[in-house]
Write a structure and sequence with these properties.
Blueprint lengths: L12 H8 L17 H11 L12 H13 L3 E4 L10 E4 L11 E4 L9 H6 L11 H9 L5 E5 L5 H9 L1 H10 L1 H22 L5 E7 L3 E2 L2 E2 L3 H7 L1 H13 L4 E4 L8 H8 L3 E3 L8 H8 L4 E3 L4 H6 L2 H15 L5 E2 L12 H13 L3
Length: 362
């Protein structure tokens, strides 16, 4: 696999932004990921020497390393938010069984009960204060990010469905939809207040050209709670985030796992998201979505994570080519995994996907 990524890629955030805004077919494939697991970054750096010239004792060495990794892989951006926004949740930890194991194990949310299940716990919960969060990384990127790259504002905001289920516990939330709807509304109002403050601060930075909210709202069969309650409790927050992004002249992307067909028109026409991320073969195929929604919505990723975990090189390359043949028409598509670059995807499989994207000529 030594011949992977031999096709050179120069970042061009303006062309990347034009692709997301569906301003015509781009000259090359642009790549996007919600994130790469830290273990994958470490493996890539060890294999290719990406960070060998970076003095790790320098104060901002990790940010320098992030730029180096993103540029090496062919991305046009770094993704960044505020620091110090702590949300205590009830978590459990188990051993990580991935090939590249995560030190300290893999964490899970307690789905039975969370830290906010009644009004007393609501009042006592240490809600994060956006004014006390720091913006060290954003400030450094504002000064030092190469001119051909941009910042995608992401992390620390927009988790309306996720945080609601994590704060209450999914099981508790389901009961509360019957007998504590006023508490659910109070939690949602509090999240809108907090996330609005976070995004206001992120949008102060000129290098932020795109806003990316992340909020898993569904499972394989549908939304986590009814479509009606999803519209009532979760979509108003995203509508606020999208409105703020658009007022600043920036597109609003949404990562959300699960089957969202019952609310997709709401997301497009009411919330007004500009791009959808997260695709799973057991739910939907990005090629079909391009045919159905490609004139109204930018599609991001779509190469299924389970497929990348199990498929051989020829199958990966064919799937990438087949996807690009349909999805690149007219712009509005960026190549990537269906979710994120997890530490259980074989690194070579991920690199093959990138490599085929670089070689695509339309």
């Amino acid at each position: 696999m030594s011949d992977l990524l031999t096709e050179s890629v120069t970042p061009d955030y303006e062309a990347f932004l034009g692709c997301i805004l569906r301003q015509g077919a781009p000259k090359r494939v642009h790549h996007i990921e919600l994130f790469l697991d830290g273990e994958v970054k470490d493996a890539l750096c060890a294999r290719f020497g990406i960070d060998r010239t970076i003095d790790r004792s320098r104060p901002y060495a990790e940010l320098e390393r992030e730029i180096a990794i993103q540029r090496f892989l062919g991305y046009d951006y770094v993704r960044c938010g505020l620091e110090g926004l702590d949300w205590p949740f009830n978590r459990s930890v188990t051993q990580d069984t991935a090939v590249i194991q995560r030190q300290g194990g893999r964490g899970y949310i307690n789905e039975h009960v969370g830290p906010v299940t009644n009004w007393e716990e609501f009042e006592c919960y240490p809600w994060p204060d956006p004014s006390k969060a720091t913006s060290v990384a954003l400030e450094w990127y504002e000064r030092n990010l190469p001119d051909d790259m941009c910042v995608i504002g992401g992390g620390g905001f927009g988790h309306f469905a996720e945080h609601l289920t994590w704060l209450m516990g999914y099981e508790t939330l389901c009961y509360a939809l019957y007998d504590q709807r006023d508490l659910i509304q109070a939690i949602c109002d509090k999240m809108i207040e907090i996330f609005t403050g976070v995004l206001e601060r992120i949008l102060e930075f000129n290098r932020v050209k795109i806003v990316w909210g992340s909020d898993d709202m569904g499972y394989r069969g549908g939304t986590l709670i009814s479509p009606e309650d999803t519209r009532k409790y979760m979509l108003p927050g995203h509508k606020r985030m999208a409105r703020m992004a658009h007022k600043s002249g920036k597109p609003y992307l949404l990562h959300s796992c699960g089957n969202l067909f019952s609310i997709l028109n709401d997301l497009i026409d009411d919330v007004r998201i500009d791009g959808k991320h997260s695709f799973e073969d057991t739910i939907e195929n990005v090629i079909e979505d391009k045919r159905l929604f490609g004139d109204r919505l930018t599609l991001l990723g779509g190469i299924d994570v389970d497929f990348l975990c199990t498929a051989k090189e020829d199958a990966i390359r064919k799937r990438v080519r087949d996807t690009l043949e349909v999805c690149m028409i007219g712009g509005g598509y960026c190549l990537g995994t269906g979710n994120s670059v997890t530490n259980y995807i074989p690194v070579d499989s991920y690199l093959i996907m990138l490599d085929e994207g670089r070689k695509w000529r339309g």
